[in-house]
Design brief:
CATH topology of chain B: Amino acid/polyamine transporter I
CATH class of chain A: Alpha Beta
Largest sheet of chain B: 2 strands, antiparallel
CATH superfamily of chain B: Amino acid/polyamine transporter I
Strand content of chain B: under 5%
Number of domains of chain B: 1
CATH topology of chain A: Rossmann fold
Radius of gyration of chain A: 16 Å
Shape of chain A: globular
Shape of chain B: globular
Structural class of chain B: mainly alpha
CATH architecture of chain A: 3-Layer(aba) Sandwich
Order of helices and strands of chain B: HHHHHHHHEEHHHHHHHHHEEHHHH
Radius of gyration of chain B: 22 Å
Oligomer: heterodimer
Distance between the termini of chain A: 28 Å
Order of helices and strands of chain A: EHEHEHEHHE
Chain lengths: 144, 515
Amino acid sequence: MAEAIVAAYDGSAAARRAVDHALALAKARGAPLVVAHVLEWSPYSFLTPEEIAERHKRRSEEITRAQSAVLAPLVAELSGRGIEVETVIRYGHVAETLCEIASEHGAGQIVIGRTGHSTLASRIFGSVAGSLAQMAPVPCTIVP
Amino acid sequence: MKRRFETRALAGAAAATFLAGAAQAQTLDETINSAFATSTGWFVTFIFSNFPGTSFPWIVGWLVIAASVFTVYFGFIQFRVLGHSIALVKGDYSDPKDAGEVSHFQALATALSGTVGLGNIAGVAVAVSIGGPGATFWMILAGLLGMASKFTECTLGVKYRNEYPDGTVSGGPMYYLTKGFAERGMPGGKVLAVLFAVFCILGSFGGGNMFQANQAHQQLSGVLGEYPGWITGVIFAAIVFIVIVGGIKSIARVTEKVVPFMAVLYCGAALVIIVMNIGNIGWAFGQIFAGAFTEMGIAGGAVGALIQGFRRAAFSNEAGVGSAAIAHSAVRTKEPITEGFVSLLEPFIDTVVICTMTALVIIFTQQLVIDPETGLYVMNEATGRIATVGDTSGVGLTSAAFGSAFSWFPYLLVVAVVLFAFSTMISWSYYGLKAWTYLFGEGKAQELIFKLLFCCFVIVGAAASLGPVIDFSDAAIFAMAVVNIIGLYVLMPIVKREVESYLSRLKSGEIRKFT
């Protein structure tokens, strides 16, 4: 079977375009599709004492929400298209985590969307798509 | 943290104000002061009384002896595991699957922002100006010993925390005193836990709140000119309200972010000043060691230096008080001992690094006046301190020392003091809340009552110079240590079992790095 294709998905329209592109590729190659949803998280960020106490609870809520509101509708839509679809939810630095997911699944390609317009912040700090293009271990397609 | 000296100085300043306006009718402040002083004075006097025949406060002895006992009992654990502690904070041993949970780094940073405060800036200046450079030596020693107390209490805090079905956690001395004592079949755990909770609530209103608001106002009015304290109080209370009641965490996150930045900037500036005066290095360390062991003309000689140094360290890093055990108990870890290892870095950073920087800058920039003929320090008889170049003390002395190298630094110091005060308040609001819910039960209504009360005390603290009230809440914080350390003595064998098991598994390779 062909190498898997990882598509980053956060529920946005840009991400949806990426999934559609990845889907077409997967179909053409007969490859499985991995839909990855990464929640931005740094273990070095700062939290208040109260946030620390509630963190475990919040994390479970966030994962449940991501599963039910973001991934489940997409999976329901993609089922029956003859493509093997797997979903992954992770916490971490978005670009780095996508690379990890790609290596773990032995994926041959990462597909990610971009919003198109560049904000001041992304000009200074870089965007997810930008950093992914620089660090991806496999070919990376950025869907406009 | 809380400084009895500054409190005293404050009360003194307040008294002077009152004397100046003696013709005025008795103010509300005075009424509260006198009522409070008569009813709680005995408690304050008891907590801060000296060992008979000395000028050494027994509570400082209690903290330092406990720290020494834990250091010996755990075989100098703070030096043996320092490298491993740093690896834990870096996340080398964190399971990547746990991403999104509270990391060791986050628990440490939050606990630190509760202890790093005015004590590191003003308290050290007071200690050095009374005890001379020798106080630095004893302060560092007490800071190193305090690491063992912190290690013991934070391990227990995680081990005996309560985890609720919804995934939230509550931990701290209240829980290890009850559960730990029950486990060892010892009576009295519940009584100690309730006492601890009561003292913790009082301490959170006082030293963790009113005192901070009061000092922040002193600093602001020093820069902006005199204005009524209630204005600062209302602004501070509103911000605290938004954070703790409104749940707008972004403001707190900003300060939590700025505080470590300030701490790094502070230490960086201190290092630059030390390098600028590097020619004094031999002399400065000569003064520190000579002052630690010999008569240098200061009040009480070497013993005076020891008292000041120990006192400063104990009051600054809160090791043994039990507050850090509350802060650290929420971390996600399978091994409670790892949080103990991480927490022992706290007194190191707070006292051995930051407090020492303040002391070194004051010594290196030669703020303390020396008699050129005798080589001894010149005493200012009126204040009982060593005379300083600009005749300053407390924050003023630190400000003058840094200002001698960077003229803009005093302004930055004001910002730092205000932010440190704010982050200390946020931390203590949580400690008090945990004690409150321990006594009155978990629930939204109970929490709201405490949080509203907490905001009211911010205004009171900034508006008034309530010396006796603040004395009382300082005493409450140290009363926490009395209760907590009794518990630590009883429960330390449990911690020892954990350490031995963990370290043997670490050695055998059962516990491995993930990266």
